[in-house]
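Comment thread on ticket #2218

A.B. wrote:
> Attaching the input chain for the structure job we discussed in standup.
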Amino acid sequence: MNTFHLPERKIHMLTIGWEERVSLPLLGLTGLKAKIDTGARTSALHATDIVPFDRDGIPWVRFHSRFDDDTRDIDVECPIHDQRNIKNTSGVPEMRYIIRTRFAIARRAWRIDLSLTERTDMTFRMIVGRTALRNRSVLVDPGGRNLTELPKTDLAERGHHERTSP
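C.D. wrote:
> Ran it. Output below, let me know if you need it in another format.
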């Protein structure tokens, strides 16, 4: 009897805690203190002064993102990926702009969707939802905090203020 064997593929699981430092490099935001929230479907980013506009017939959004920790306070412009109803922390649906950008944690990076919303009164200005982590070989340790390290380039960039477009 012939048997067919596929080569074994090693998958390195990245273990993260419920709170981690993450980056959104295309937006110029590095070292953000984020809550890893597997109860949330969509990731969310604190944004104020949200203004949609057209650039060459393509819908874009301009917003301000400010963090209380030692990360950047920045104005951002980027294309709108989608607009959809997302339940807020009280369970009430609200229409939000969705942007698509690069997300980095530890030494890994991939594309995620982020909803833009006012989170001034929230402890965490960024929430990383389960869709952003799905199929990425990430394990969340609910008892752990800051289990990963920022890449050295992120450490060097923190503290700068600039205007950026992805």
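A.B. wrote:
> Thanks. Noting for the ticket: The CA atoms of residues 74 and 111 lie 20 Å apart.
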